[in-house]
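Table S5 (text form). Sequence records supplied for joint modeling of the two-component complex.
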Amino acid sequence: MIEVSARHVHVTQTDLEALFGKDHPLTVRKELSQPGEFASEERVTVVGPKREIANVLILGPCRAHSQVELSLTDCRSIGIATLVRESGDTDGTPGCKLVGPCGEVELKDGVIAAKRHVHMTDADAEKYGLRNHQIISVRIETDARTLTFGDVVARVSPKFRLAMHIDTDEGNAAGIAGDITGEITFS
Amino acid sequence: MIEVSARHVHVTQTDLEALFGKDHPLTVRKELSQPGEFASEERVTVVGPKREIANVLILGPCRAHSQVELSLTDCRSIGIATLVRESGDTDGTPGCKLVGPCGEVELKDGVIAAKRHVHMTDADAEKYGLRNHQIISVRIETDARTLTFGDVVARVSPKFRLAMHIDTDEGNAAGIAGDITGEITFS
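The corresponding structure-token record, covering 374 residues in total, follows.
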């Protein structure tokens, strides 16, 4: 129910072809919790002013705008001062270079640290008394690093499945190494 | 008042000499908030099974036991499965190799992710109604990543100065890039 998202990239079909060659399709490696979303076999290198990170996962399917989701630890490491943003809200965010086996792409913007959020269906939202885009708190109890995340966005759509998404910094701050399931408390 | 601790190492005099040469003293670069503690000019490479991290700060003065404080992001990156522990509580923790300009040291244990804590004087503890080793919660309000840290250890000593210490993962999860001062709420 709580999924720790590793760094990843979403790409447009155009950028995908620039990186992997003409008509290259994304290859499904693993279905994700959100229906239709998948981790692909394709990997790219994310290049910042200070350093680069190799082997960054591309999530599919292709989107209308390329976007790079890094932890703030990653951003500091490669020298990009980014912002905490909801997916898709990339106006004014920094860009970076992506390098694939067949070419590279210079993104003008799109590097974000993802704002933590909970995907839920309309039925879930009704059950918990929440509405789309409501800001909620989620308490996570662990052995040594219990915490309560504020500023969590409820994202409601009939296409979603109930799952909270946090990044690796947030997972580590809660003492969660990977995905966990269990009761979480919304407030 | 809230200090984000970067990865660092504490060393014994013996280990310091193995790394930097006989009778090498730690050179004070910057005094830290806790009286007597300082960041030194000396840096070492921390070597794990998967990868190494260069230029890791040594904090002084020397201690009775060498200890390596990394974020869980660092630990995963270099391939060490460590535990969240209070400083000094290193029994059963993993070790690593340290490499300096004059030699290297193989630590049998001592790699920890630091348990978040608040240093305070006896007067502070009395003011807030807390006692040494009490587990408290601390709420930090930021623009996009407000959160409440549970499992925070109150550490009370006349030798301390009031300051909360969190690591870089925890700072990033709260949207704090560096040290901040301001009112925090204990509960």
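Note: The longest strand of chain B covers residues 38-47.
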